[in-house]
């Protein structure tokens, strides 16, 4: 199916990146559910060994055009069509089973990445120009775009993306995944409307104790009211739960890819899977970051991926 886009219905506004630079120096659309044949690895590690760990990555990919934008080599890699391979190769090192993209590139680029990773994918159109993508080695079913209660997206909300789908895990268990990129304004008012709307749509699944993930660029730090809304509703911030010694040191920072200063990208979990989290950390390494010793270096994005690992045998 071709990618479908919502028309932008909100005026231009300062982005989170604009804010970070300053601080540091209409209706519901149908989801475009595009699937690539999966080439999933074995569902189980081996006879008697139980299920494989589930590896999940949340990544704002900045349209897959490299960062900073003015780096000549990054521009050249984009012009030569290298970025799909670069993203796929770097992500593959971490053997992800589920990946979310915020600020996703055009579907043709997503398709190349998905094929290289052996993943299915669904695309979530944006209320503006920032679509999302959910990729998985496993089957993805029942995708919904901006599934607000009542069926209509308020024009000023979810102008980036929010989508819901179910990933069918190897044993047949359904895993509900919400992929989201919330409002980037430095003030919280819009996010404080987006989150309750999302929680209303999640309520029946939360009350039923179903395993769920919320992954993406939530555009808020962990010390603010937005974060408390999630945790009060039953969501577990996996980095806060299992991030180890770094948690108490204010680490886990996910932006920017040269000198990370904020933690705004998350893998959250609810239901039984929340107790199965065993690792959560940003990937400040490899091609995901710049090299401070090389003024020509570029990162794949201005954000770092957030990796979380779940031991499904727990």
TrEMBL record:
It holds the Pfam family Exo_endo_phos. InterPro entries: Endo/exonu/phosph_ase_sf, Endo/exonuclease/phosphatase, TAT_signal, TAT_signal_bac_arc. Keywords: Endonuclease, Exonuclease, Hydrolase, Nuclease. It comes from the Bacteria. Residues 84-303 form the Endonuclease/exonuclease/phosphatase domain. One of its GO terms (molecular function) is exonuclease activity. NCBIfam families: TAT_signal_seq. This is Endonuclease/Exonuclease/phosphatase family protein. It comes from Alienimonas californiensis. The lineage of its organism: Bacteria, Pseudomonadati, Planctomycetota, Planctomycetia, Planctomycetales.
